Amino acid sequence: MDTRSIEDLIKGRRSIRKWAKKEVPDDLLKKGVELGTWAPNGGNYQVWYFYIIKNRDIIERMAKEVQRVADKIVSWQEAKAFEGEMVRSRQSNATLWREAPAVIAVLTYQYVSLMDTILIARESFDLEAKRILSFRRSAPTGIQSAAAAVTTMLLVFHQMGLGAVWLGQPLLAKKEIEDILEVSENMNLVCLVAVGYPNESPQKDRRPLEQVMKFIG
């Protein structure tokens, strides 16, 4: 594959939130996850795990929990300052993914690197170690690894003719979703990915490169 083909694949992908009522074959979902596990990851520890969910009852139960929390947040006094289209949109769009034919839950195992183990041992009495550890915790290796896997999956699904969307909002009900999926205590839900055959063609541009990049040298 030449650079232009890769560019077309990357620039052609869009987040899809409307899907045709058509089942996605298991082998396509499995292949997407498989290729996702070839993404870069911290220390090659591969601390990710994936649940492919097609059971409508389970998806609906997860969505109801997320919607319940979203509705509660919008009802709080602090949300009144944001009344209007944006708040209503966030509330109504919180569970659009309940219509997706498949939802992939992306999780990570609890993982502490050697460097973090040393820093943790010193953080209670060493201000420098505590400071360095705060840097590490601002972008955990497991989260970075999971993000790389999700990015890869999204491109693979797009190449397959599927449409997917990366979902962070379901973390509003993180514990409830983990309970529904019977996730073990040593695993952590990072996000959901909703997948199906697209029933929309959204077009969104990116900011000019000059606004997000600077050469130093």
Task: Provide structural commentary.
It is a single chain. It contains eight helices and four strands, in the order ααβααβαααβαβ. With 217 residues, it is α+β, with helices and mostly antiparallel strands. Strands 1-2-4-3 form a four-stranded antiparallel sheet, sandwiched between helices. It has a domain of 137 residues: NADH Oxidase. The protein is globular and about 55 Å long.
Which stretches of 5+ consecutive residues score pLDDT under 50?
A: none
* Shape by Cα distribution: globular
Major sheet attributes: 4 strands, antiparallel
Instruction: State mean pLDDT (0 to 100 scale).
Output: 94
Radius of gyration: 19 Å
Helices and strands, with pairings:
Layout: H1 3-12, H2 26-36, E1 48-53, H3 56-75, H4 85-92, E2 102-109, H5 114-122, H6 127-138, H7 141-159, E3 163-167, H8 174-180, E4 187-196
Antiparallel strand pairs: 1-2, 2-4, 3-4
Helix pairs in contact: 2-7, 3-4, 3-8, 5-6
List key phrases describing it:
about 220 residues; NADH Oxidase; about 15% strand
What's a quick, concise take on this entry?
This protein is an alpha+beta fold and 217 residues long. It has helices spanning 3-12, 26-36, 56-75, 85-92, 114-122, 127-138, 141-159, 174-180, and strands spanning 48-53, 102-109, 163-167, 187-196.
